[in-house]
Structures are given as C-alpha cells and as structure tokens.
Amino acid sequence: LYMLAQFGMTYALPSLIPRNRDKTKEIIANTVFAQFLIAVVLSFAGVFLFFYGECFGLRAEILPLAPIMGMFTGLMVASSPFDNILIIEERSQAAALLLIVWDLTRGSFILCGALFFHDLPIALWAATIAAALRYLVMLIYLRSSYQLSVSQLSWSIFRKQWKLAAPMGVQSAGHLVEINTDKYLILSFFTSA
Questions:
Q1: CA distances (Å), 81 to each of 55, 109, 180, in order?
Q2: Where are the alpha helices (DSSP H) in 6-91?
Q3: How many other CB atoms are found less than 10 A from the CB of residue 174?
C-alpha cells in the first residue's frame, strides 16, 4: 500500500527536478501537497474500515487497529519525498543518516510501546508518533530550505509531474504483483488458521 499510495510522485522527483531546476519549489510543493492529500485519504480509509470493515470481510480483531494503521501509512506516504529530496540535493549522507535515524526511532518507539505496555495498539500508536515526527521534520526542513508554502502550488507543473509519475506508479503496482503473486497463489490452496 505504501508503494501504491505514492502514485509514483515520489519516484518521479529524481527524474523531474534535475530537468526543471527553476521549478524545484513548485515541484516539491506539489509533491508534498499531493502526498498530504493521500495521507488524509488513507487516514479516513482507516476510520471507514473501523466502522465498516466487517462488510469487507475483515476480522473483528483487526478493526480497532484500522485507524492507527491508516494514519501510520498516511504519514509514511506524506513523508516519503524527504529521502529523495536530500538525494537530489546531493546530500546522500544526510539521506542515509535520515534513514538510519528513522529506523532506530521507529524501532525504539515500537519496542518501548510493546515492552512497557504489552499492547499492540500502543506499539502501533508509538510507530505513528514516530512517523508524525518524521513528517514534521520534513516540513520544517522544506520550509527552511525552500520556503515551502501553499502559494507555490502549480497546476501546470503538477500536470507535467503526473505525466511522469503515473507510469512510475503503474510500474510500482506491477512490481508488487510480480513479487507477491506466487505467495498469494500458494496461500489460495490452503485454508487460513
């Protein structure tokens, strides 16, 4: 879901920004805004599944976790451009450090939530708080480096972005099908426990 929900927008950044350096602020603003909207949709989808998930065959044990999982996934999608922007700026060490700090932060938040409270929802909330921190750090960075604001949104630039991003989103979907088809095929022959 994380790969699909980006709709190729994040993956298109390394191809798009070097070709359009004069429009970098608009491209980043469009991407961040689009990913934010996707995050909102995913969060609402989690709440929707909380109320109506049984109609879709979700187990009762999963339903209380749906809002948390929707919010976590949404925040991860919303903050997904951060690494690519650092790499585009030729700050690969900063991007690597970000990934390491993110993995350690998320892991320690989840671990503390699980060890101290012995409760899966608390561990998921801890991961969501870590994701919110990552998103906040990204927004602060983009605001200070690019003076990111809503006024930089550009519909004409977004259309160009979408023309490049859409095929990348389709490729992501194809890749997910490719790497998971065998698993689902095998599982279809067995009943769930």
A1: 34, 22, 25
A2: 9-16, 24-52, 66-78, 81-88
A3: 10
Per residue in 37-96, pLDDT tens?
999 999 999 999 999 988 888 888 889 999 999 999 999 999 988 888 888 888 888 888
Q: What count of other Cβ atoms lies within 10 Å of the Cβ of residue 77?
A: 28
CA atoms within 13 A on the CB side of 60: 0
Q: Which helix (H) or strand (E) holds 156?
A: helix 155-187
What does pTM read for this prediction?
0.81
160-165: list long-range contacts, CB under 8 Å, 24+ apart. Answer: 160/16, 160/20, 161/9, 161/12, 161/16, 161/27, 161/30, 161/31, 164/8, 164/12, 164/15, 164/16, 165/7, 165/8, 165/9, 165/11, 165/12
End-to-end CA distance of the chain: 24
Average pLDDT over residues 21-50: 91
The burial of 173, by beta-carbon neighbours within 10 Å (0-12 exposed, 13-18 middle, 19 or more buried), is given as middle
